[in-house]
């Protein structure tokens, strides 16, 4: 699909709160320009959207305060959950608008497309919002880092916990695009390797599905014990609501549930749900410190792990820029990614970690249970920790991903 200039400009509109006046060419040479490409208006807007821009700007502001000689500009766009629109915006940003790095990419199909463009243009791509483990596997490249979470981690953490608890037969309701397919694949592999059985799956059109009733009835008719929801955002919210309304008697596995989803549904609906995330605002002093800064700019909201990931990845990216120099970072995206991999990571949101040669960022993953209403002390006090998996164990082994960057 060829995009018109009008459609590109419409999709690439900078959020008013983050708008910055045009920068003269001379100043641009000493300015790092970050493009936040996220779902700003669709089913992922709560877990990414404007909050991702706020988190990115927080990291940029803190870096500039400590390094006044380096300027950082943040722009944003809505990819509308369409890979062609995301690719078109990215090309415009890289070719015409002087963007140095694209981040967020809260859609796996969009992320895979943008990752390929980053390699083609030798620009940096930092994925915080997409899930497919192929980004550090068969589709890896030297210009992309995959932060926050992926389908392998979700499969091992949530899927593994469900199987160990007796959920040995599964039926999947799967969003019909790259993310859903990868999540169903990775969880299904864990189930089968543990001696379980996948009884079937149904693919739901993405985006646009709001009525999941027929799919849920198929799932229950399969006789499977576990309903595996290989979807996210509004799809997950609607699935959980409708499963309760239809009296589905299966155990529900929310394979990618965000705190924003729990907030939307309420504890009455979500209590007892098992899920995995790599960031929760009330884990420790560091996570609370970031959350409080975020809430000052988005009153009444707590950050999702994607939004925390934007803060984390931008903070580390800018450290690498400082280490190698602005001019070098702007010239060579692959070299900037290589510099990021050399440096240990450490921030309020995820603590200490590392980045592997395949581009996979490593940090702990947490298995949570959603609290009962009587256990919660107030708004956003939703999770209790069931288990913690160290980063080296949470993600797919380096040798198993088929990434061409990994030397045998």
List the helices and strands and how they pair.
Elements (H helix, E strand, L loop, with lengths): L4 H7 L13 H4 L2 E8 L10 H18 L4 E8 L4 H13 L5 E4 L3 H14 L2 E4 L16 E3 L4 H14 L4 E7 L2 H16 L3 E8 L8 H9 L4 E5 L3 H12 L5 E4 L4 H7 L1 H4 L3 E4 L7 H13 L7 H20 L1 H6 L1 H10 L2 E3 L3 E5 L5 E2 L2 E6 L12 E7 L1 H4 L14
Largest sheet: 5 strands, parallel
Task: Identify the CATH homologous superfamily of the largest domain.
Answer: Response regulator
Strands, count: 15
Distance between the termini: 39 Å
> Mean of the pLDDT scores?
91
Q: Total helix count?
A: 16
Please give the order of strands in the largest beta sheet.
2-1-3-4-5
Helix content: 40-55%
Please name the CATH topology of the largest domain: Rossmann fold
- Unreliable residue stretches: 1-26
Using the CA coordinates, give the radius of gyration: 20 Å
Report the CATH C-level class of the largest domain. Alpha Beta
Q: How many domain modules?
A: 2
Structural class: alpha/beta
Kindly estimate the percentage of residues that lie in beta strands according to DSSP: 15-25%
Which CATH architecture of the largest domain is right? 3-Layer(aba) Sandwich
């Amino acid at each position: 699909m060829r995009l018109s200039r009008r459609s590109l400009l419409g999709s690439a509109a900078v959020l008013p709160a983050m708008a910055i006046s045009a920068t003269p060419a001379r100043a641009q040479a000493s300015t790092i320009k970050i493009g936040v490409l996220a779902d700003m208006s669709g089913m992922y807007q709560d877990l990414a959207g404007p909050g991702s821009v706020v988190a990115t700007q927080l990291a940029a502001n803190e870096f500039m305060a400590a390094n006044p000689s380096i300027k950082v500009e943040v722009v944003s766009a809505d990819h509308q959950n369409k890979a062609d629109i995301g690719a078109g915006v990215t090309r415009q940003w890289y070719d015409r608008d002087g963007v140095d790095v694209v981040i967020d990419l809260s859609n796996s199909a969009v992320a895979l497309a943008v990752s390929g463009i980053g390699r083609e243009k030798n620009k940096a791509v930092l994925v915080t919002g997409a899930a497919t483990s192929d980004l550090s596997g068969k589709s890896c490249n030297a210009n992309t880092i995959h932060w926050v979470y992926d389908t392998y981690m979700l499969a091992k953490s949530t899927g593994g916990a469900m199987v160990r608890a007796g959920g040995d037969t599964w039926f999947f309701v799967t969003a019909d695009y790259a993310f859903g397919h990868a999540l169903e694949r990775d969880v299904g592999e864990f189930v089968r390797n543990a001696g379980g059985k996948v009884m079937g799956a149904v693919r739901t059109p993405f985006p646009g599905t709001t009525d999941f009733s027929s799919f849920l009835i198929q799932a229950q008719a399969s006789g499977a014990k576990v309903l595996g929801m290989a979807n996210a955002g509004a799809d997950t919210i609607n699935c959980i609501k409708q499963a309760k309304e239809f009296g589905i008697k299966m155990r529900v596995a929310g394979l990618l549930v965000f705190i924003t989803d729990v907030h939307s549904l309420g504890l009455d609906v979500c209590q007892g749900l098992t899920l995995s995330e790599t960031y929760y605002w009330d884990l420790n002093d560091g996570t609370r410190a970031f959350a409080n800064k975020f809430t000052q700019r988005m009153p009444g909201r707590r950050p999702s792990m994607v939004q925390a990931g934007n803060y984390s990845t931008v903070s580390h990216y800018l450290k690498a820029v400082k280490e190698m120099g602005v001019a070098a970072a702007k010239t060579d995206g692959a070299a900037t990614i290589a510099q990021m991999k050399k440096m240990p990571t450490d921030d309020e949101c995820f603590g200490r970690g590392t980045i592997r040669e395949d581009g996979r960022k490593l940090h702990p993953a947490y298995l949570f249970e959603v609290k009962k209403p009587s256990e919660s002390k107030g708004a956003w006090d939703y999770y209790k920790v069931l288990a913690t998996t160290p980063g080296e164990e949470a993600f797919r082994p380096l040798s198993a991903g088929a990434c061409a960057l990994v030397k045998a």
